[in-house]
Amino acid sequence: MATPIKEWSKLEVRAVVLFLFSKGTKPSEIHKQIAETYVEGAMSRSRVYQWCTWFGEGQTSLCDEPKSGRPKTSTNEENTTRVDELIRCDRRMKIREIALKLEIPKSTVHEIVHDTLGYRKVSARWVPKMLTEDHKLQRVEISQRLLQRCEQDNGDEDTTHTDVGTGGDFQANNNLFDNLITGDETWVHLNTPETKRDSMTWKHPSSPVNQKFLRFFAFHKKDLVCCIARPREGHLSLSGPPSGQGSF
């Protein structure tokens, strides 16, 4: 028995089917001869019958016909441009929404957004206050004055100084920080504000970091501002707005 042919091509096997079919050989016999001549897997029984049907209908080409329908990939220049335009118009748009709007697969949108366009979705960075340049300058000046006072008060227990923040006087001691009061304020919301995940936007790695101030929320008319103050030693002071008012 001859050794089966190990190296073959699809066109070669199809040519054998066409040759045998043109001689009047039955499809079952064609498959038997191919199985004996070539290694297993050269052409299945169903494919032999399929090609015999096509040859019987008059087809002579051994090549596959072009397939109709959607191409294998939708990642092309046109879709890339459309996705980029949508993101630039609304940086909070989700991949699912982009896919529905453009009628392309979510996997394609994901590839375009992350691999082709280089976007990544991040949240805005929370900051307690949006300080102006004047606010920043005032903080620097006050900090410098506090440092100077610490140097002047070192070892001097009998000197009276003007308070940096209020203009009042106090008796200095060995530790200036015993006379300082720290404080802050916070909003008490009566509604559910937007979550950090809801505020995520698309950006490139080189884009500046977004910042989000608490006033970005849509405040309820009854929301409150609470002020908290505490000395180094003593009780915590908590105060709110007068009755009937939403804020100071």
Automatic annotation (TrEMBL):
Residue stretches making up the Mos1 transposase HTH domain: 12-51
Gene3D superfamilies the record matches: 1.10.10.1450, Ribonuclease H-like superfamily/Ribonuclease H
Pfam annotation, one family: HTH_48
InterPro entries from the UniProt entry: Mos1_HTH (IPR041426), RNaseH_sf (IPR036397), Transposase-MT_Hybrid (IPR052709)
Superkingdom per UniProt: Eukaryota
One of the record's GO molecular function terms: nucleic acid binding
Protein's name in the database: Histone-lysine N-methyltransferase SETMAR
Organism of derivation: Plakobranchus ocellatus
